[in-house]
UniProtKB/TrEMBL annotation:
InterPro entries: Pirin, Pirin_C_dom, Pirin_N_dom, RmlC-like_jellyroll, RmlC_Cupin_sf
Keywords: Iron, Metal-binding
Family: Belongs to the pirin family.
Residues of the Pirin C-terminal domain: 193-289
A molecular function (GO) term: metal ion binding
Protein name as it appears in the record: Pirin
Record's keyword annotation contains Metal-binding: yes
Bias kind Basic and acidic residues: ranges: 1-10
Known cofactor(s): Fe cation
Binding residues annotated for Fe cation, in chain numbering: 78, 80, 122, 124
Species for this entry: Blastococcus xanthinilyticus
Region Disordered, annotated ranges: 1-22
UniProt superkingdom: Bacteria
Length: 322
């Protein structure tokens, strides 16, 4: 998925400054933005006061939207470097094409995981004939220095591991949780888990104390350590937790994201992650010149996205928080 902001701010990411030394409950303010031609999303990461949760650097939550009379998601071909995209649907269907030749439709409960590495381009569309509702999350994971130039690849996993207990059904998107391990390849210690709770469920969720965590409310009514969490909101939970108590007032879906604090300093601008402003400028020039770094998305009917103008100030990596 793309950041379609025509004036994207430069994001300085990473480093251990700003990482908590213990648990917190910080509500992250989201920002509504337009994605593609018709899809509005709530951008929850990066946001004011928090740039990363582990290696997770970007969180968009969209829907549920009634798209019966419209085109749904329509995102033209665009580039990525130095990251993974993790696509997770609760309702709907998305058609993914990329410059590797991948041509896949994925649905709720399936993992679409694209590793950009050295460089890739892709498009995302609701099919012409699509389900009535569209609801999901789009996530980015930063690749560490040792792997950021890895050859790009795409994974589609139609079945994911998990477990059901005491009104909780957990599905593991990335990493390991509760004895279940995702088939998706991760390059740093991290976890992503969809938590479906029945109405009235009251559960203790196991956590790794060395991880920092965030919790996104996708739907329903839930409270976290007695703090209400409304749909479309995200809580930053900090580090040092071994468990987390979650209560569901109604049937609810939550997305738990966590990982070891990411020590490296990064620059994120538009759809690129690099280490210096000069790298970002180079990626932008190569995309505009139609360099083979990114390849061509075959089968998409339309123009690809143009890169927005670079900001007038130098892009420099700094810390994890503003």
């Amino acid at each position: 998925m793309s950041n379609l902001d025509r004036r994207p701010p430069a994001r300085d990411l990473g480093g251990l400054d700003g990482t908590t030394s213990g648990p917190v409950l910080d509500l992250l303010p989201g920002k509504e933005v337009l994605l593609g031609e018709s899809t509005r999303v709530r951008r929850l990461l990066p946001t004011l006061g928090r740039r990363m949760v582990g290696a997770w650097v970007f969180v968009d939550h969209y829907g549920p939207d009634d798209i019966a009379a419209g085109p749904g998601m329509q995102v033209a071909p665009h580039p990525h470097t130095g990251l993974q995209t993790v696509s997770w649907l609760l309702d709907g269907e998305i058609h993914h094409r990329d410059s590797l030749g991948s041509d896949v439709r994925f649905r709720p409960g399936e993992l679409a995981l694209m590793t950009a590495g050295h460089g890739i381009a892709h498009s995302e569309q609701s099919p012409a004939t699509h389900p009535r509702f569209l609801h999901g999350a789009q996530l980015w994971v930063a690749l560490p220095e040792a792997d950021r130039e890895v050859a790009p690849h795409f994974e589609h996993h139609g079945a994911l591991p998990g477990f059901t207990s005491d009104g909780l059904t957990a599905t593991v998107l990335m990493g390991s949780f509760g004895g279940a391990t995702s088939p998706g390849r991760a390059y740093t210690p991290l976890v992503g888990v969809d938590l479906a709770l029945t109405a009235g469920a009251d559960v203790e969720i196991p956590l790794e104390p060395g991880f920092e965590y965030g919790l996104l409310a996708s739907s329903g009514s839930a409270s976290v350590d007695d703090v209400p969490l409304e749909p479309g909101a995200m809580l930053y939970l900090g580090t040092g937790r071994r468990t987390l108590r979650v209560r569901a007032g109604s049937a609810s879906r939550l997305l738990l994201l966590g990982g070891e604090p990411f020590e490296e300093r990064l620059v994120m601008w538009w759809n690129f992650i690099g280490r210096t402003g000069e790298e970002i400028a180079g990626y932008t020039e190569q995309w505009s010149a139609e360099s083979q770094r990114f390849g061509t998305v075959v089968g998409y009917d339309g123009d690809r996205l143009e890169a927005p103008p670079l900001p007038p100030v130098a892009l420099r990596p700094r810390g994890r928080v503003r």
